[in-house]
Specification:
GNAT_dom; Aminopeptidase; GNAT family N-acetyltransferase; Acyl_CoA_acyltransferase; alpha+beta; 5 helices; 177 residues
Amino acid sequence: MGIIAAKPRDSLNHMSIRPIIASDWPAIMAIQAQCYIELIPESLEVMQSKWQASPTTCLVVEQAQHVVAYALVHPWAKGNAPSLDTEIAHNESNSWYLHDMAISPAAQGMGLGKQLLEHVINQATQLSKNGIGLVAVQGAKGYWQQQGFLPEAPSESLNTALNTYPPDACYLYLTLD
């Protein structure tokens, strides 16, 4: 396991986005630990439950044969979120939930997040999903709003889930056409 910083001469053309495979998990867990400093990282079992619930929508970005980013995306009802650090099971919904998207600190600032999000949105659009929800943490609300995600009025069940996140957590939703 190791996360290698992309060299400046590496271009985004050498990047690939693909579904997660079992051997990606050490790199994914390392990226999670590097990126989430205001909350306790979720366990491997919890992270893998998202992948097992929807293996075709959980993705990694690979550069020079190294995983440098990931996104855990799975079906979930609009206006709701799973509690943090809780295993989930497969469920049917016409909306997706972007549970986690993280870029290795060594690969930040290269536009990978925007490309990964665009890939997820395109995939959801092709599958006629209504939209994508997420919980913004660590001051990321502004970033997600710049990407078109908007706040939703929280329900009682959403408030219960949000109580498991840091105090600044905010549910946002992107409606797809």
